[in-house]
Structures are given as C-alpha cells and as structure tokens.
Prior knowledge:
By secondary structure, this protein is an all-beta fold. The chain has one domain (about 15-115). About 0% of the residues lie in helices and about 50% in strands. The chain contains no helices and ten strands. It has strands spanning about 15-20, 20-25, 30-40, 40-45, 55-65, 70, 75-80, 90, 100-105, 110-115.
Amino acid sequence: xxxxxxxxxxxxxxxxxxxxxxxxxxxxxxxxxxxxxxxxxxxxxxxxxxxxxxxxxxxxxxxxxxxxxxxxxxxxxxxxxxxxxxxxxxxxxxxxxxxxxxxxxxxxxxxxxxxxx
Length: 117
C-alpha cells in the first residue's frame, strides 16, 4: 500500500475502462482507490499488504455490471457500503479496531465476495 504524504493526504488513484474489470494488488494501491467501468468488476488481492491497526484502506468500485472479489488476511475487518444487486459474502471479524478495508460498491448487478487467506 502506498502511503500518501502530508502534502496530498486526499490523493485517490483512479482506474478506468469501458469494458473489462481491474485486477489490483496491494502494493500498487494508495489509501484511496477508485475503479470504474461499464462492464467489469474488480479483483483485489490485499494479502501481502500490511495495513496498520486502526488504519482504513478505501476502495470505490463503480460499474453497471460487475462485482468485487476481495482477498485479505484473516485479521482484516471489511466494511461494505453502496448500492448494488448482489449480496455480500464475508465471515470475517466485525469488531472495531485493527486494520479495516472499506469497499464502496456502486452498480446494478454484482456482489462483494471476501476471501481470507
């Protein structure tokens, strides 16, 4: 995860495509990332990222069709927000504290699936 400096604390990485999703690895992400496409979801692997306790990594996904497949460590709490037709599959920790990944998923069709390794 790329830390933003004090000069640009609100920096957001933006990934855009018309058709086709995005495959994102943790070391290439900033603290805030936006992925947008007409058709296509986001496949995100954060297993190698050391997110400090109390820190929040925020990912926003915008698409008409396409969900989010997220892979995180077992201790990471995942919060899912947004509007989409599709459920959320996550059986991870829900207690506050520790590292947090916030997914804002906006779209017509596509759920959010969280896998823990």
